[in-house]
Amino acid sequence: MMGTKSLVAFVLFALLVFEGYFTEKVLSATVTYDHRALVIDGKRRILQSGSIHYPRSTPEVWPEIIKKSKEGGLDVIETYVFWNYHEPVKGQYYFEGRFDLVRFVKTVQEAGLLVHLRIGPYACAEWNYGGFPIWLHFIPGIQFRTTNAPFKIEMKQFLAKIVEMMKKEHLFASQGGPIILAQVENEYGNIEGSYGVGGELYVKWAAETAVSLNTSVPWVMCVQDDAPDPIINTCNGFYCDRFTPNSPSKPKMWTENYSGWFLGFGNPIPFRPVEDLAFAVARFFETGGTFQNYYMYFGGTNFGRTAGGPLVATSYDYDAPIDEYGFLRQPKWGHLRDLHKAIKQCEEHMISSNPTQVQLGKNLEAHVYYKSSNECAAFLANYGSSLDANVTFNGNIYFLPAWSVSILPDCKNVIFNTAKVVSQRTLGDSSFSATTSVNDFILEPSSWSWYKERVGIWSNNSFMNSGLLEQITTTKDTSDYLWYTISINVKENNIPGQEKELFLHIESLGHAALVFVNKRLVGFGYGNHEDASFILDEKITLNHGNNTIDLLSMMIGVQNYGPWFDVAGAGIFYVALRDLKNDTNDLSFEEWIYQVGLEGEDLDLDNINLANSSLWTTGAAPPVNQSLIWYKGRVLWH
Ligand code: GAL
Predict the structure, then answer these.
(1) Taking the model in full, what pTM does it have?
(2) Of 77, 150, 425, 634, which one's alpha carbon is 20 to 30 angstroms from that of 439?
């Protein structure tokens, strides 16, 4: 039997082990909310968050980007989850490399930051098909994002899959992990009206489904005024100071504050001045906001065919505080870091009370947060866009430039004004540029080689169809390219009016097309991000006898936004020949031959292992000003 002494010693030992275990391993936290803020372990928090989408960079650089985010004053990293790359084939999952979600969340955790996981599974995000797998489109009877049984089964399954995965890895806050918040759906409120009563039922179902997954952290639905309790409806926009949640028991949260914007091909490169961004953030916290997320804090790159559409560019730089290559964008990053520090200094006051508003003049106001009757923090705002002003507050005079907010953590001393950028103004990231510059990369001029793509049908897996086919249904998004080919025999009287000179009229849902007549390029048409459809009218000459018309229809990112975007479609839907007398021969219902993809894709020409293959022509000068050439060059880094 164990003696009393040894029993005491054993209990003590057990307690020590037990306690050590808990303090070292399981720093679990409860996350709830009240009308002011998210409440972590019983304490209201003022949180700065930033979006970083894990597949828009690589696991090797995640730690550095997250470190720079932390140094910039962020508390939380937000990301969507990208269903179509995690489940490329129904039931087959992929979580490797850039898609290693668990590794990403753990990397954030290791840096000591928190995570907002927007599982969706609809993402939008200028991501191909908004993050939906293409196979979903082919499930019989499916209708996306409404109260439709086949869709709900798949959506629930994926939500549950991700939640289970996070639980298994102990990544929710209650398990000691960094995830404090989760999102279901995305901005459904913008398009709900188009789905009628089905939309309303779907919102209720999505909310119930999310809650039933027992994540133990709050769920949000952004831009969703009718988000049912306990889901928090949040604001997205360039400014959210006027936003109020749909219940007095929910906090005022901002899930997308645009640091810039995404780039569409042909559009100017977006830019948002940091003075305006800082003004928007300060106004939000001034007027009672307690959580704000930069969309994007680091945008990165749309690798491969991940870009959404139509015509979203490969760069997702977004004019974000960390640029596409991971360098600090100054003075944006620095000015926001200073802003975050200033707001942090007010945190204890901000979590103690609602702000008290004081009118100071036209377009001039103060909001005061009281920690006790004689301890306060204040925000002074001039929200007029053209006139600077002097205001009197608490017996002191303060200069407020137009469109600016000053922060006074003690209600007296201004430690920050959003319009006064005093942080470092150098371009780029000095620590990096000291070691690497563009001059370190050399494109070897003599290294060019090329491959001439065949025009029209190039394999025996082409097929025939009477009439024009919609492109996405035909390619199943296995390629951006689809050849539409038709043979035309010109005999006397075959073409109305007998002329050989004709107009070829083409209408396309998008996104771009090259037109070849008898293998010669005669036209090029394309849409833009706002409207991908286009019409082409080309004057052409046909020979007597056989002619071919080859149309190469090209997709530049599958649509990712809007009501019923999933059935928007792409490709050519009307082709006609018109003679000079305006008689029209509609070819839309004739026999067309189809070929999915390019020969070069089939040959795997972009595979680095084929860099030295004899498929590539080398030696002579590469062809210039010709269509459909694959070029390969070599860049040396030294
Ligand atoms: C929002 C959407 C984001 C992203 C953004 C534009 O409406 O929620 O996912 O698409 O627009 O970059």
Answers:
(1) 0.92
(2) 425
